[in-house]
Design goal:
By secondary structure, this protein is mainly α. The protein has a domain of 84 residues. Helices cover 74% and strands 4% of the residues. It contains ten helices and four strands.
Length: 269
């Protein structure tokens, strides 16, 4: 009886700690069923996975920065979307309209974004206006400034060198096609091998980092999960990485923006 209670408590702990993950999996499976029933392909089509990463990478980058705000007293920055809109508008003006070198335009945009953050920080730290109010005002202010800068019109086209920084893939597309059939689809052989190799390296690095981190926690007398739970976590997450790798390998390879996202997350970690 006592053993059953322990198993039940363990299951409850797992469900409580991973509720959002289970909900996400359930939603994805529901949409997969609905999309297949409607005859519109699959949610897990390789091209769709690639597009989801490319189109939402900026959201993950913003969330990574927002984490610092939340950790420092439970604050929040409501203006991040408007600041991104303004910085993006200025990047278009600098690069397309003014013909400024790409590296200089990026540095100026980073500087402007930093100054806006410092502007908000001044009112929060020295004028003692609550972060919610300060950033709410910033959300309205900088969105308006972005509209003024753009004059309500899009700016295009960006030079190819700029697009290569964020819209390219690794490995780069090869003119000489060397395709093989994988799961009934034609896939570039070089892209498949290179992407799966990178995914495997990521798995090995992930496992090594987790093992080292666990040993440090044990050495410093921190509470850690059981060995079985730890191994299960490594196996599941490694499988997820390899699964994502094969999706990307069957499309165009590893998006450069995903690498930039990984670097930013690692730096903040």
């Amino acid at each position: 009886m006592e053993k059953k209670n322990k198993i039940g408590d363990s299951l409850k702990s797992v469900l409580k700690g991973n509720t959002m993950i289970f909900i996400l999996v359930g939603v994805m499976l529901l949409f997969e069923i609905l999309i297949r029933m409607s005859g519109h392909g699959s949610l897990f089509a390789p091209a769709n996975i690639t597009n989801i990463i490319r189109q939402n990478a900026y959201v993950a980058i913003l969330a990574t920065g927002m984490l610092l705000c939340i950790l420092t007293g439970g604050n929040i920055d409501l203006s991040v979307g408007s600041v991104v809109a303004l910085v993006g508008a200025l990047a278009g003006v600098f690069i397309v309209n003014l013909g400024m070198p790409i590296w200089l335009a990026i540095c100026l945009c980073l500087l402007i974004g930093t100054l806006i953050g410092a502007f908000h920080g001044f009112f929060i730290a020295y004028v003692h206006i609550p972060p919610f109010i300060t950033t709410l005002a910033g959300m309205l202010l900088w969105r308006g400034v972005a509209t003024i800068v753009l004059d309500g019109k899009p700016i295009a086209p960006f030079p190819q060198k700029y697009l290569n920084l964020f819209e390219s893939f690794i490995p780069s597309a090869n003119k000489e096609s060397n395709e093989i059939v994988v799961f009934g689809e034609l896939v570039d052989k070089n892209t498949l091998i290179a992407t799966l190799f990178i995914a495997l390296v990521c798995v090995l690095v992930f496992i090594a980092v987790e093992i080292v981190s666990r040993r440090k926690k044990i050495k410093n007398n921190y509470t850690v999960s059981s060995r079985g739970s730890f191994i299960a976590k490594l196996v599941v997450l490694s499988a997820v990485i390899l699964l994502m790798g094969q999706f990307l390998a069957r499309d165009r390879g590893l998006p450069v923006v995903l690498i930039l996202l990984a670097v930013i997350v690692a730096a903040y970690s």
